[in-house]
Design goal:
single chain, about 475 residues, alpha/beta, Rossmann fold, 2 domains, seven-stranded mixed sheet, three-stranded antiparallel sheet, YcjX-like protein
Amino acid sequence: MVFRAITNQVSWAAAEMADTLTHPFAEPVIRLGVTGLSRAGKTVFITSLVANLMDRGRMPQLTAAASGAITAAYLQPQPDDTVPRFAYETHLGCLTAPAPQWPESTDRISQLRLSLRVQPTGLLAGLSGPRTVHIDIVDYPGEWLLDLALMDQTFAQWSAAALARAKGRPAGDAYITQAQATDPNASLDEGTAQSLAAAFTAHLNASRAAGFSDCTPGRFMLPGELAGSPVLTFAPLQGEKFARNSLGHEFERRFESYKRNIVRPFFRDHFAKIDRQIVLVDVLGAIHAGPAALDDLRGTMAGILGAFRPGRNAFLTRIFQGRRVEKILFAATKADHLHHSQHPQLTAITQAMLRQASDRAGFAGAKTGAMSIAALRTTVEDTVDHAGKPLDVVRGRLLETGKQAAFYPGDLPDDPAHLLSPARAGADKWLDADYSVMRFAPAPLTLRPGDGPPHIRMDKALQFLIGDKL
């Protein structure tokens, strides 16, 4: 075991040294991590990102596109043959069909390589020819990112925190009742283990559906090929020490196996190699769900930032091996659900949450930012008469009925503290306002040659993330 660990570290160090020595002579590669919390629109974001870099007519705030420095963009085979390819063509077909539909969400890691031909401008234009910049887009569920916090916890610590979070959440009290009725020192019974794991998973799924963000372990909700395996058959229990061959002892062992066999390989093999990161966040959905969901999202953002902080524990320091994520963008999605007059308020709320999360996490090093975006614009803006006064609304096709409807979600406050303070104080509901959300279907698209799908601030987001590399 020790020899294997030493060999792995030597191999990793050798690979890093080789990469460092050959990098100046290789075509530059930007590894862009894209993740999103529940219902944030990750698949649509990546599809729109690629489409708008292939056809750059709607990208005026991406300097390299506006100046004409990007002369061509094309997809290439991804460098890692062992990672599934992001199904770009399939997802784009869903969005651009005569009767467009939202593409299916992905529940596993995937990758796509987009290569840009870039012609230097300014003083360098006459000194060097065009160069190729590769963008490796690494797509992974945000729930997996939250699992990093488990690496610092024992089974007893995680259990205590999970049981505390479950109180009052959907299906949480039912699970707590079932766990309290179970003797953790009783002999292991696989039927009991499966029943507890199923009840806890149902609680996590119900909580996520209700707008809560901090729902771990992430693979319980996205099991994939691991569904039904022992590594996903455990749940939080009360107690710290358990008898040998007991239910509690086996759950503790499976928890450690989850960290060793699920969490560690993901961060070692994928996460640690990311250069730039965007985290998509459904802030509007959390506001609609209420103060508890918004405060949970704020805490979740702190946990995400902690994942990008090398030195937090020995494991994280080892996997980064001197690498670090240089820029992280938190993007509040679904900005098209608001009239543009409210976009500054949505951005300010996201920035305030990011500031609090950054302070809580003690984060330093990378450049962080917050922005409100829409990867695919599904609405048009309008002003209607309401009680004798003009009211700014958006119009779109409702997903459930297919009918056109005007929508006004409620006024977001100019001061983010008007939302964040009651959320942190544990308020049950918003006292002076009611916020709502609608589910819009994608609108049929008629694209001019050279134009990608309509969006809001995708060009600005890419300028922040990779503009300096182009």
